[in-house]
């Protein structure tokens, strides 16, 4: 009756990869690692039944696909370039409207380039995934956004290390932080725990604590070819 | 004529060493053999280092335009700026003489330099007495563009709940680009860079200066003995052999031992109260640093904390380890004759204020400790920069009493400008000249920890 726990592993990583701005919905990171109290009924059912899990997944993906890419202004939809890569001129009429979210994923934004972002006093979400030049020095510049920034993603930035993550302590309003897949961080699992302790009201998406742990000689990995018996 | 063409062809030789970049190398330069041959020819010609009788590669060259005594961060910084600012390129031969071989062994590798900078900021705590000075300091810092914030005890408790704010009236916290880094990485990086720029290194000890003096009259009619150093005798480690190096300029960047090097040049040998009798007031002072583990201690956000009592600590790594210490008072100064660590000092002088300030530190376990020397300026604990008024070709870059690392890049540039141009250009450091020891004008540095 109960789906084997092993299958949950298959779903979770795919789901994490597809997520961008996580809305108020999810509190699931890795189901087996979730220590939070007060899990909703839906989540409980999702843990037990594979079908419910898949349904929830699908609903979330639909939600996420609406909030996809580029900048978002207060109350308005994303503004994107047209086929030729030009922004429409309506954009200029919106100068007085504050910017709430910036998606600079994959951009070659660097230390000096952050100047433009730091002036945005109402910025709530900032995505800097896979930015090749964002490093520890850049992170120490983010403190002016402390009063408004609620969501920050640094996933996949090759130059960010745990030393820069220590500066995120200034961002006391932060509710969602993605620090997964940071190759320059020496102990990803331990770093994530320390960041969670540093930012108690923030949900931190990152490496599992067991990642990077070395197994002792007695604890050889078991063969997980087939599903484990329920 | 042959020699001239050889020299013209060879002028790129010494500059191309180090990191092995052969941009625009000719087809004839297969396997770098041609540049090797060129180097060999140049060393054979007069002025080069080659001696036909025996191997002298461990000796310093017979002459060098600038000899830098001391290969620490200040000496390397001066070498870097001399090579960076010289015109034309390759015009000046710079030699760095360093005595200690264990500390500064060169490691030649190419990956980009990462000095492991932790931008966690400094948190200085002030009692009632020091609050006004702290406000003033923060004002100056902000004027220069530093992002520093002042915090009341309540704000401090909110931000860092692990602090006990008893006795703290005000705190200053650096928000941006302030923190600590690995000095060893910086030193190695500087050394590699400076070698690639063509600076020569030599392991040895400076034992003698050969100088000539002239009796001259100052503008006020007073007679002074003006000295000029012509040769530096570099003694090779564990041997009686020495090499006299002819030089035009000597830079004293010998850190804690600068006082001894200055004495070799005759600085301070004269009737007390005169300029000739004014010694370089830089002495060795031993300082301890302790590394401890405290599993309940403050977390990732911990800045470099400095207590009003002078005790300091910071986070080290991710494993709840911390390092810190405290400067002893004048009466407690340990004997600088050796580098043995006094563990009672931690128990009696460092731990109590730490435990009072951070209650979690009541249970901790010291993992290791080490000792090092400050180049302590007994006059005003501030650096000495620039030429000596009487020994006119000795320049100082020392005496920073524990602040040498942070000030090295700027001081290196200032001294290089002084050497190349004759005056300070970028930053005016004339208040830090040697002459203040004679005139008595102190530039007191209060914040040595």
From TrEMBL, chain A:
Gene3D superfamilies from the xrefs? Ribonuclease Inhibitor
- Name used for this protein in its record: Distal membrane arm assembly complex 2
Native organism: Felis catus
Organism classification: Eukaryota, Metazoa, Chordata, Craniata, Vertebrata
Name of the gene this protein is made from: DMAC2
UniProtKB/TrEMBL annotation, chain B:
Q: Does the keyword Disulfide bond apply?
A: no
Q: Name one Pfam family in it.
A: DAO
Q: Which InterPro entries match?
A: FAD-dep_OxRdtase (IPR006076), FAD/NAD-bd_sf (IPR036188)
Is Transferase found in the keyword set?
no
Q: Which UniProt keywords apply?
A: Oxidoreductase
* Signal peptide (UniProt feature, chain positions): none
Domain (FAD dependent oxidoreductase): give its ranges.
65-100, 112-418
Q: Which domain of life is it from?
A: Eukaryota
What is the annotated role of this protein in its UniProt record? Required for the assembly of the mitochondrial membrane respiratory chain NADH dehydrogenase (Complex I). Involved in mid-late stages of complex I assembly.
Q: What is this protein called?
A: FAD-dependent oxidoreductase domain-containing protein 1
